[in-house]
Amino acid sequence: MTDDVISAVVAPTAKSLTLDLLSTLAGGTMPVAALVKAGELFGIAENSMRVALARLLAAAQVERDERGRYRLGRQAAPIDRRVTSWRRMNERLRSWGDGWLGVQMGVAPRRPDRQQRRRERALRFLGFGELAPGLWVRPDNLRGGVAAVREELQTLGLEAGALVFELDGLDPASDARARGLWDVSALCAGYRQSLADIDASEKRLQMASEAEGMVESFLIGGRVIRQLVLDPLLPEPIVPVAERDALVEAMRRYDRLGRACWAGFLERHGVIGSRTPADTRIPDGATRLLN
Length: 291
Hints:
Largest sheet: 4 strands, antiparallel
Order of helices and strands: HHHHEEHEHEEHEHHHH
Oligomer: single chain
Number of helices: 11
Radius of gyration: 20 Å
Helix content: 40-55%
Strand order of the largest sheet: 4-5-3-6
Number of strands: 6
Mean pLDDT: 87
Low-confidence stretches: 283-291
């Protein structure tokens, strides 16, 4: 079963697995032996894990204590907080009064640079869509309004000089185009597919070995978490909110099951986890939520 699960979902890299495991710690650290052993479950060689650790340490994405144990570094903290927010999605929302939030940026260059990719990642995280060249919008239904959204965008990588503002009074045609920026059919299909995947995985995990359970819960749970973290949090009537809520509730249940799958391994290595290890790479396999 483990091989089937890994082949169905792209296996993590040494770098991504290391960051994912360290992001689960409850204020403590993790020994190299635990990271190496976890890497073995996904077919990652010990040397690859050690090289990844050295590079992450140099980039300040991980930190090492005096005992040679590791924790997540300060550079990764803002995105880590965003990843954990899926459990409290509804707390981030307020009722929608048909208004919009806008971000004005320059037209993207043909070959996006690192800063451009950071901008677009920040906008994607907060569910913005491009209404016109350089103009990105989303429904004004996030708690805290424009001030809170501006602060979070800047924390995630949007430059301080970018204009972030309330946008009201769109003409009917522009309003209709704004409401159509998101593929709602694909969003709903994704909710339903993930619900089915969680249900099927829960049944398999009842008969899985410890290693199989660790791998499957990491991959399946991580994919659903990515889906929720990147969800644009659109309001009614743009999307049927009940379908999204159902997936969040199912993922809370699955997260408890995944935590049980990893509990023995973490205990043996003296690691205290605050949440279940999960694969938080963005689905294209090239970019991660923790990056």
